[in-house]
Design a protein that fits this description.
By secondary structure, the chain is an alpha/beta fold. It contains 9 helices and 8 strands. The model has no long low-confidence stretch (mean pLDDT 96). InterPro entries: Amidohydro-rel, Aro_Compnd_Degr_Hydrolases, Metal_Hydrolase.
């Protein structure tokens, strides 16, 4: 356990601001008691299931959700698929797969509600960036997207990918660290990517990106991006906020911050409803 410490649990659920009607949580994780964990891994999760996410979704007015395969399960997508099967009309998934996965296995995942794959260079047991070239041609015909949990300095590597019409989605503002000397340079690199067709970013997990307790620097960047790239943004809760050992955020405070950063109802509709639904729920 010394190399995979146990995460904090989320804070008890209080009153939450309501999201726009039809809102989609485009990034959250669930875990299952007894499911084998990868070793080595970056953290040990609290056991929180789809039944634990549902009260949060109900309180916030979340109509749909996209489960993202966490690194602690490696290539075994079973926990995620079983969660989707609990409510297949409302849930979709982003899987982690090996580059040599067969077309038949991908079709099975598609039938189980998967609509994308995840590349993760930040966590142990993730799939590396080098796998993308082989996977793009396999997932493209399915209409899936490719999600990237990468470090901000890898934005140039993402920019160099020949992805055709396959949508690319960057998790958590590409993990740009705010308040550092290169923040402006990294934001410019992100904007250049968002200028391209079919590239989006999730405006999620501000607590991972700044030392500020109010996340105001991240919020200012999100507000600016809504002015320049409103159709390239989507929101996710990042629930249950894994890989935190102190400073667990309050879900009500987080949603209130997004109300402040995104006051325009039309922009909220685009970011919370339209863009994620287009990416994950077109069928």
């Amino acid at each position: 356990m010394s190399d995979a410490p146990l995460c904090l649990p989320p804070k008890p659920l209080g009153a939450l601001p309501r999201l726009p009607v039809g809102a989609c949580d485009s990034h959250f994780h669930v875990f299952e008691a007894g499911a084998p964990l990868a070793s080595p891994r970056s953290y040990t999760p609290q056991i929180l299931t789809i039944a634990d996410w549902q009260p949060y979704a109900e309180a916030a007015g979340i109509a749909r959700g996209v489960l993202v395969q966490p690194s602690v399960y490696g290539l075994d997508n079973g926990v995620m698929l079983r969660a989707i099967a609990r409510d297949p009309g409302r849930l979709r998934g982003v899987a982690v797969v090996a580059p040599d996965i067969s077309a038949g296995a991908l079709r099975e995942l598609d039938a189980g509600g998967v609509r994308g794959i995840r590349i993760n260079t930040r966590n142990k047991a993730g799939v590396a960036l080098e796998a993308v070239a082989e996977l793009l041609g396999k997932v493209g015909p399915l209409g899936w997207s490719v999600q990237f949990q990468v470090r901000a300095e890898q934005l140039a590597d993402v920019a160099a990918l020949e992805h055709g019409e396959v949508p690319l989605v960057l998790d958590h503002l590409a993990f740009i660290r705010f308040g550092e000397a290169d923040t402006g340079e990294r934001l410019d690199a992100l904007r250049r990517l968002l200028d391209r067709p079919n590239i989006c970013t999730k405006i999620s997990a501000p607590y991972r990106l700044t030392a500020r307790a109010d996340y105001a620097d991240v919020g200012a960047a999100i507000t600016a991006l809504t002015a320049s790239h409103p159709h390239r943004l989507l929101w996710g809760s990042d629930w249950p906020h894994t890989e935190l050992w102190d400073g667990m955020p309050d879900d009500g405070d987080l949603l209130s911050a997004y109300e402040h950063w995104l006051p325009d109802p039309q922009l909220r509709q685009q970011i919370f409803v339209d863009t994620p639904n287009s990416l994950f729920f077109s069928r």
